[in-house]
Amino acid sequence: MLDLTDVAEAEGWRDVVNPVRLLDSCTLDGRVYCVPVNIHSPQWLWLSHDAFEKAGLDVPADWFEFVEAAPALKDAGVVPLAMGQQAWQTNLAFGAIMVAVGGTDLYIDVLTNKNADAVRSPEMTKVFEAFADARLLSEGSDVQDWNQATNLVITGQAGGQIHGDWAQGEFQVANQVAGEDYTCLPGLGVNEIIATGGDAFYFPATDDPEITAAQKELASLMISQEVQVSFNLKKGSLPIRGDIDLSAANDCMQKGLAILAAGNVLPDGVNSFSADTDNQISDLMVEFWNDTSVTVADAQERYADIIANAD
Less CB within 10 Å around the terminal CB: N or C of the chain? Predict the structure, then answer.
């Protein structure tokens, strides 16, 4: 991979990237090998104003109010929860519910400390119970891709979707306005905390000086103030720079920026486990989501076993 340290030092990346651990993830032995371009957080609940109007309800303020509204949504012919039938989407929903219902201490204890005893706690039982509620609320959401599920919310066919901030791009393409046509609730409206994952670009090393110069120019452009503003406003993600003006950001991005500014952030769960452990968790979550004969107690104990042996 191309060493970008000279560009990073010349432009003071370490002084502007926020949180700085995003740059640390690009750094090996003191050398910078990638350019972070955004912050993506998966802990959001997206709600359709049309759907709740059909049901004669106010838009919920949090996950618990959303669950309470589900019967009225069903009576109005609306699927309460849109969910694409792919394993990563199921895992994303579980992680979001863990942050909202279980809280940040539990999230860190399980995903960072790999504490199996924490998985067996009453707090984690509540997480699995909420996940069991979610699987029932998604009955009738027969789509595969995440953007198809988002479209159900946009068109008022579904009440809400648990998904990442990149769903904003779909709402914007549909000319919907945050706060008017849809509502977004970080941390599912319960714990307004976001995980800071995101995207980064790496460049293959080459012996051609012209290509190397072009790669470094592109890296510089990606992290520039102008591109950080225009790119992230389109994509729905948060910028990795803490020194830019985002007064043009919509209601949802402003919520994310406020959470980021307050330091209410978590490490992204995607970095917690090996591919093998992650696949074991995915298999369990998909089975639990699609087979209601799998009980909360059974799923919780099996999850504890996976965490106890996680790598």
Answer: C
> What burial class does residue 9 get, using C-beta atoms within 10 Å of its C-beta: 0-12 exposed, 13-18 middle, 19+ buried?
exposed
Q: Can you read off the two tokens belonging to residue 63? A: 């996950």
The CATH superfamily assigned to 5-39+196-266 is Periplasmic binding protein-like II (3.40.190.10)
Name the CATH superfamily housing domain 44-195+273-308: Periplasmic binding protein-like II (3.40.190.10)
Return the pLDDT at 272: 83
Cα 252 to Cα 160: distance, rounded to the nearest angstrom: 15
Q: What is the pLDDT of residues 18-47, one digit of tens each?
A: 889 899 999 999 999 999 999 999 999 999
Distance, in Å, from the CA atom of 175 to the CA atom of 48, rounded to the nearest integer, reads 14
Tokens matching residue 45: 């609940």
In 10 A of CB 217, how many CB atoms? Answer: 11
Structure-token match 């948060």, residue found: 238
In this structure, the number of other CB atoms found within 10 A of the CB of residue 169 comes to: 16
Q: What is the pTM of this model?
A: 0.91
pLDDT at position 56 over 90: yes
CB-CB contact of 155 with 182 (8 Å): no
User: DSSP label at 45?
Assistant: E
Do the Cβ atoms of 304 and 121 come closer than 8 Å? no
